[in-house]
Amino acid sequence: MSWLSSCGPKCPPDTAGQRRFTPVRRAAVWATALLTSAVLGGPLQAQPLAAAQRDPELRAVVSEAIRRADCFPDKYDSAVWYTLMEPRLRRIVADRDERLHILQTVWCEARRPGEQPLPPGLVLALIDVESRFNRWAVSSAGAVGLMQVMPFWPAQLGMYRHQLTQVDANLRMGCAILRHYLAKERNDLRRALGRYNGSLKSRQYPDLVVLRWSRNWNGADDLGAASVASR
Question: Which of 162, 148, 169, 167 is nearest to 99 (CA)?
């Protein structure tokens, strides 16, 4: 099943007359419709909900992600990743060391060996929407850090709450949660993002993330995907 399975019969066919899109091409189709919607209906906004990330199955998933803390990025692909994404993130994150740390960790967590690969651009888009890359961000629902992880997680995992503001721990937990919801929803990205935000019945949040992904953070999502899948 595709990443953006909600496109359905409205997806235009490819050159062979079939509806086979890469994740980036599907995101572009979705984003085109969203841009039109935003122009006609005003800006989209994400409202995090207190019910987010409360799936009882998640504890084991996040605990395992914390235990397996090492990442092994491919040097060539990660170099291309930095070259493409560092100038974009520079406009938002002024500190060079923090900027490179975020990009390294996003790449490692998105391409973690033995796990379902995530498009790194999607992870950046989710961070962009959730916190605007501010690791000190706290939402009205109490979610903390780059990927706005809910504050009940540290107590459940034997961690300290301040670790939610750390780049590595926050992204590790956030990516584990996103993977869990993608698996739960059989790779239906819209529904997985809705679960992440605690707004499964609304399209507003997933539409905003995909729009940000297509507009600001695309271009390097296929790097390393084949090598990760073969491990």
Answer: 167
33: in domain = no
| pLDDT tens, position by position, 135-177 | 999 998 889 999 999 888 777 777 788 889 999 999 988 998 9
What does the pLDDT average to over 194-200? Answer: 91
- Stretch 38-66: mean pLDDT, rounded? 54
Q: What is the pLDDT of residue 25?
A: 47
Sign of CA dihedral 103, 219, 109, 35: positive
- Domain assignment present for residue 196? The answer is yes
What tokens appear for 100 in the block?
A: 């490179």
In a domain, 12, yes or no: no
CATH of the domain at 109: 1.10.530
The Cα–Cα gap between 54 and 64 comes to 17
Domain count of the chain? Answer: 1
Alpha-carbon torsion (210, 141, 40, 187), positive or negative? positive
Q: Residue 210's domain spans which residues? A: 46-229
- More confident site: 41 or 196: 196
Tell whether 32 is covered by a domain: no
